[in-house]
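A protein record in our archive is deliberately plain, so that people and models can read it alike. The record that follows is passed on verbatim for readers who wish to inspect the format.
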Amino acid sequence: MAFSWFRRTPKLATPPPAAKKVEVDSGCTGVCALDMATQLCKGCMRTVSEIGNWRHMSDEQKLEVLDSAEARKASA
């Protein structure tokens, strides 16, 4: 193999690092107790339906649920 000033080393195609998806925090406080009168969790103030459907919600829906829970906490 002859020496060449113009020898190029092949560049390895490396994919860009995957953007790490930031997950929306559920708001769970670890105080999981249902208030039978309001049907709300006493810790996070989410409904049973909101808690059960959390993993199937979009980030936008999750943020709406958290806003509603915060409003419930403020009015309690």
